[in-house]
Design goal:
This protein has two domains: 172 residues, Ribosomal Protein S5, domain 2; 142 residues, GHMP kinase, C-terminal domain (Alpha-Beta Plaits), CATH 3.30.70.890. It is built from nine helices and twelve strands. An eight-stranded mixed beta sheet has the order 5-4-6-3-1-2-7-8. Strands 10-11-9-12 form a four-stranded antiparallel beta sheet. Helix 1 runs parallel beside helix 2 and helix 2 crosses helix 3. The longest helix is centred in the last third of the chain and has 21 residues. The two termini are 37 Å apart. 48% of the residues are buried. The chain binds (R)-mevalonate. The site of (R)-mevalonate has 15 residues, from helix 4 and helix 5. Pathway: Isoprenoid biosynthesis; isopentenyl diphosphate biosynthesis via mevalonate pathway; isopentenyl diphosphate from (R)-mevalonate: step 1/3. Pfam families: GHMP_kinases_C (PF08544), GHMP_kinases_N (PF00288). It is an enzyme of class 2 (transferase).
């Protein structure tokens, strides 16, 4: 008692981003690599201490290193989306006097890269407060907390980030229904940080305006995205990685047609494909952010990550379709 801890990881979207906001299917993959996680420690403040929030945003890629810039530290009141989680859980604890709480959040998930950093932070805070307050929240209650914070931050959020940042397996979300898709062969995903990005809120709003201005465009996009995602699911279940890779690249082209890619993400996709990836695409909200590339084996993924670092100066993480424990 007196303190609590919590953790959550980043995620990427393999297929179906943006379409999932309108109920179409999307497939997400957790990125639980070291350095792509959010960790929280919280406690009731001691006598005379200022109630507050301290966030340490680690430089992306690895926890620390001699050539990396120092972490970015923010202090002050708890940000809006997280404040929502904190007040909801303090109320839920039915404490007679609502105490303040000190929160230390350390995140290696870079923000605005489509990696689900806001959901990972909200989930880590939720778990830490659950621990501090002894609430023993169900996974549904945790999801509700994270999702309410996501809605506050993004305006409109499908819920896929809130789900995937707490899952060890790929997550399929379709029409509000969540399931675990079949994976017929292991594959490796190289996650490439383009170094800049935009907020998901901005990207979702841009697309909404564009659909409103072009009648029929939304339906065409949803049909195309749904077909690609369902085809990708069949490829993944059947262990046909090269075919899955082509779906990823097709998905990139589809999103590029909507103006969601940038010169940088387009050129990183090209570089990954030239470097031997089975497929590559932007991932998440877009307008910058991360690119993902599919490789069949760990050595191939490592070689691709090394090539991209050498030739484009980008940091990469690798994650796999199937986690070791599930073999
Ligand atoms: C963000 O990871 C994916 C989007 O589809 C937004 C959402 O699903 O809420 C762009």
């Amino acid at each position: 008692p007196g303190s609590g801890t919590g953790t959550a990881h980043g995620k990427v979207i393999l297929l179906g981003e943006h379409a999932v906001v309108y109920g179409a299917p999307a497939l997400a993959l957790p990125v639980p690599s070291l350095g792509c996680r959010a960790r929280v420690a919280c406690r009731f403040p001691g006598e005379g201490r200022v109630v507050g929030f301290r966030m340490v945003q680690l430089p992306p890629g690895v926890p620390s290193g001699p050539f990396l810039p120092p972490p970015h530290i923010t202090e002050g009141p708890i940000p809006e989306g997280l404040h929502m989680v904190v007040s909801a859980l303090l109320r839920r604890a039915e404490l007679q006097v609502l105490p303040g709480v000190d929160i230390l959040l350390e995140s290696g998930v870079p923000p605005a890269r489509g990696l689900g950093s806001s959901a990972a932070c909200a989930r880590a805070v939720t778990h830490a407060l659950d621990d501090l307050l002894g609430l023993q929240l169900s996974s549904e209650a945790v999801f509700e907390c994270v999702q309410s914070s996501e809605t506050a931050v993004h305006g409109q959020a499908s819920g896929i980030d809130a789900l995937a940042t707490g899952s060890r397996r790929p997550v399929l979300l379709a029409g509000g229904h969540v399931s675990t898709p079949a994976v017929g062969a292991d594959g490796w995903i190289v996650v490439v940080d383009s170094g800049s990005g935009a907020s998901t809120k901005e990207a979702v709003a841009m697309l909404r305006d564009s659909f409103a201005a072009h009648p029929g465009s939304r339906e065409r996009f949803l049909d195309h995205s749904t077909a690609l995602t369902l085809a990708g699911l069949r490829s993944m279940a059947g262990g046909r990685l090269a075919e899955l890779g082509r779906r990823l690249t097709d998905c990139h082209q589809l999103l590029a047609g909507l103006g969601l890619t940038t010169e940088r993400t387009d050129s990183l996709v090209d570089a990954a494909l030239t470097g031997g990836a089975l497929g590559a695409k932007m991932s998440g909200g877009g307008l910058g952010g991360c690119v993902i590339a599919l490789a069949a084996t760990e050595p191939e993924a490592d070689a691709l990550a090394a090539l991209l670092l050498r030739e484009h100066g980008v940091r990469c993480w690798t994650t796999r379709l199937v986690r070791e424990a599930e073999h």
